[in-house]
Each structure stands twice: as structure tokens, then as C-alpha cells.
Amino acid sequence: MAEVLVLVELNPTGEGVRKTTLEALTAARALGEPAAVVVGGPGTAAAARAQLAEYGAQRVYVAESEEVDQFLVAPKAEVLAQLVAEKSPAAVVIPSSPEGKEIAGRLAIKTGSGFLTDVTEIAPDGTATQVAFAGATIVHSKVTVGTPIYTVRGNSVTPEPAPGAAEEEQVAVQLSDAARATRVVDRVVEQKSSRPELTEASIVVSGGRGVASAENFSVIEALADSLGAAVGASRAAVDSGYYPHTFQVGQTGKTVSPQLYIAVGISGAIQHRAGMQTSKTIVAVNKDPEAPIFELADFGVVGDLNTVVPQATEAITAR
Ligand code: FAD
Fold it and tell me: What is the value of ipTM here, to two decimals?
């Protein structure tokens, strides 16, 4: 069976691989045997190997060197281009982070291949699905030139374990002068919150303009903490200064697909739905029974969030 290269994204905190990598490994299985590619400093692959094996990596290409971490995305694109030339894989699958999309673009130029970004599904014949215009249009496309390169949109594929041999093969890193053109001078890892990361959480509680102030977001946070959930926010809440932009869910924010999404004081505009409509179960709390979010919700509570949410938090905490 043909090999499919999957670029590994690691947790910046050093705790194994990101969920996006497990999603990419799962998506890649439609096209062939996943072969994970780890590019990083010495010892990087060791922390990732068990997870890569658990999610179906038959091989792990280890491109480690003291210097790759000193540069930005260029080393990863160069290592992938080297592997494409040496191994002739059926495709390359990369998580759709800003970094991943830049690597895909560079790799496409280097290998003379077509690439598709933000795909939500890859069919065994290589046809990729993309969602456009906030979910209003579904596009099916296929790469017709070179080695197909895909970036997989976060939370669109459910990671599924599958046994993989994860046989390691060392790759000699040969960076060009161009890859050394931009050097990292400092890295700041965001302080770790006790809450799960928004895009990886299995429960998300989001607040909207209805929360009415930054201080009142403590109501949302308390419910989230009672459930071990991440906190999200609508753009109106973010633009009003109630919550930081990094927690925005929607078309111009993050895409989440948790088991449970609780929308509190959020009307359900199409741009908000674009970031959460694939959640498995959606609960809405809104004082307006006509709010569009109720069309999407599996369960709805019509009421004032300042009454409903603290009651729910209390009941959950008491359990
Ligand atoms: P509103 O629409 O004002 O709704 C507030 C809701 O709270 C109402 O339904 C109201 O009934 C309810 N409410 C008020 N008080 C209470 C209370 N005490 N108890 C219970 N319920 C109460 N939006 C996003 O969220 N994410 C995006 O990424 C995004 N990207 C966008 C991109 C573009 C190009 C554009 C044009 C818009 C984008 N938007 C995005 C904005 C989007 O169109 C909406 O304006 C926004 O989602 C509305 O946020 P909201 O639901 O919190 O506010």
C-alpha cells in the first residue's frame, strides 16, 4: 500500500502531539499507510512515538537536528520535499494551522504539486471536501498535478486509534541557505490554563453579547469549570471586550466540534454557527424563544442566563 506522509504538530508545552496530528493521521488512512514526519530538535520524536503508533503511523521519519528549531517553517517544508523526492508518497497530509498552511504552500512550490487547504474530508480516490461561505457551500476538489498535498481543518475529522508499527527511520537534515534566512529569536509559550484547550475540549461553554459584561463572564467560567469544559465566546462578546479574541468561535475565530457545546446568550448568527455547528450535542440558553440558535440546538432553555446558568452550575457541582 502506498505511503502517505503526515507532518506531526507537537504540543508547544512538550506533551506529545497535538490533536490535529491525530486527525491528520486518521484522514490520511483513506489514501494509504500513514508515515509520520517529525521535524524538531534532538529527542522530539521519542515523546511522540507512542501516540503516533496508537493512531496508525506505520513508519516515523525522524528529522532531528540542533538547528531546525532555530528557524521558522522552511526546514519542515524542506524535509517534506526531500521525503517526497526520495519516497514518492501517494500524498502529504498536514494539520491546517497557520504554520501548516504555509508549509503546504512552500511544499507545493518545491515539488510542483497542487495543494488543497482546510479540507474536512479526504475520500479514498483523493477527492477532498472543503466548506466555503460559512458552511453555505460544499466544494469537492482533486489535485491533478504532482503529489497531492492536503491540510486538514481542525475538528473536522474524529481521531480514531488504529495500530501502527511506528518503525523509525532517521532522515539526514540538509537545510538550504534559504531555510536559514529567518531565525527564531524568542519563543513564548502561553501560560497554561487549568481549562482544556478550546479546539481540543470535549465540552465547550460559550458566552455571547447576552452575558453583558466582562465581569459577568465569570458565570460562563463557573459553568465551564463545573463541567471541566473550555470557555468560548461569540464575536460580539469579543468585540465588546468581554473576553479575549483567542477564545472566539466562528468563521473568523476557531472551529470547535466538541461532544457538547453550550451557547449562552448567543443568537446563532451564521458566522458563529460556522465554528460550532458540527458539535455532537448543542444546548442553547437564551431569553428570546425566537433566537435562531434554537433551530440548531438539540436542547434549549428559554430564560435569563443570570438565573439559568448559576442554577445549572450549582446542580452540576452538587452531583
Ligand atoms: P447577538 O446577536 O447580539 O445575540 C445576543 C443574544 O443574547 C440574543 O439572542 C439575546 O436574546 C440573548 N440575550 C441577551 N440577554 C440575555 C440574557 N440575560 N439571558 C439569556 N439570553 C440573553 N460571530 C461570531 O460569533 N464568530 C465569528 O467568527 C464571526 N465572524 C464574523 C465574520 C464576518 C465577516 C461577519 C460579517 C460577522 C461575523 N460574526 C462572527 C458576527 C456575527 O454576524 C454576529 O454578529 C455575532 O455572532 C453575534 O454575537 P452574539 O450572538 O453574541 O450577539
Answer: 0.99
Pocket mutation for ligand 1, best pick of 231, 266, 282, 290 (most atoms within 8 Å of C-beta): 266
pLDDT in tens, the chain (319 residues): 899 999 999 987 777 899 999 999 999 999 999 999 999 999 899 989 999 999 999 999 999 998 888 888 999 999 999 999 999 999 999 999 889 999 999 999 999 999 999 999 999 999 999 988 777 889 999 999 999 999 999 888 989 999 999 999 999 998 999 888 888 898 877 666 789 989 888 999 999 999 999 999 999 999 999 999 999 999 999 999 999 999 999 999 998 988 999 999 999 999 999 999 989 999 999 999 999 999 999 999 999 999 999 999 999 999 8
- Concatenate the DSSP letters of all residues of 15-40 into one string: SSB-HHHHHHHHHHTTTSEEEEEEEE
> What's the pTM value of the predicted model, to 2 decimals?
0.82
Report which residue type is found at 68. V
Domain with CATH 3.40.50.1220 in the chain: 203-318
CATH code of the domain occupying 203-318: 3.40.50.1220
Q: Whose CA is nearest to atom 27 of ligand 1?
A: 250
CA 25 – CA 31 distance, rounded (Å): 10
Residue nearest atom 35 in ligand 1 by C-alpha distance: 271
Q: How many CB atoms lie within 10 A of CB 277?
A: 18
Say which CATH topology domain 3-180 has: Rossmann fold (3.40.50)
